Amino acid sequence: MNVQLFIPCFVDQFFPETAFNMVKVLEKLGCNVMYNAEQTCCGQPAYNAGYQDECRTVATKFIKDFKTYDYIVAPSGSCTGFVRNYYGKLFDNSAVHNEVKLLRKNLFEFTEFLTDVLHVTDVGATLNGIGTYHDACGALRECGIKTGPRKLLEKVKGLELREMNDSEVCCGFGGTFAVKFEPISVNMGEQKVHNAANSGAEYLISTDLSCLMHLDGYIRKHNSNVKVMHIADVLASGW
Fold first, then answer.
1. What sequence ranges are listed for the domain Cysteine-rich (predicted)?
2. What span, in angstroms and rounded, lies between the C-alpha atoms of 78 and 191?
3. Which of 31, 92, 185, 220 shows a CA-CA span of 20 to 30 A to 24?
4. Within the chain, what is the greatest distance between any pair of CA atoms?
5. Is 230 left (phi over 0), alpha (psi -120 to 50) or beta?
6. Its pTM surpasses 0.90
């Protein structure tokens, strides 16, 4: 099976090891992984800031870069959800309408590709410790992803998965929200970290590094013992 990688901006710039770990897992499961180095942003930051015309320009390039019949897999529910749910509004009745339909059909967040397309829940990973899962807004609300990541984590040898309070509540990042409403954003992040710690978790795991980057900022400042991990990094552990 051929798989095209979509690596979001912040993963490319700040957490490239997660992208490599996603490749590691996909190749172990028999996928032929390809990467178009011409790819850039999906346009979500511009759209969320109110710059729809600028977003449309970036998104037009994205459509061109991912004009393929292959599956497209991304380590981000947020970016996946944006393309699925907003590209239709940006390009409805346009010359690229059919290309957008194909793109939305072929694009999957990493964990849903494993569970819904490959029908895999056990990748042979090992991580000793206690973990808890944060439902990122993009994955949960934009893509409907909830049970898949938990099924994958439950199969990780040595990992005890515990539910924390308010796992579905936003962590406070929200892209530009964290900039425009910093005090609220920080307090929401604080509550999420406290809920994770109160569950006894050593690892705070999610599908989205944007959330984890935000939470890790609070963790580092306040010397919490909780460690953030993207689920791709968890699934690539121990083999």
1. 3-82, 132-216
2. 21
3. 220
4. 53
5. beta
6. yes
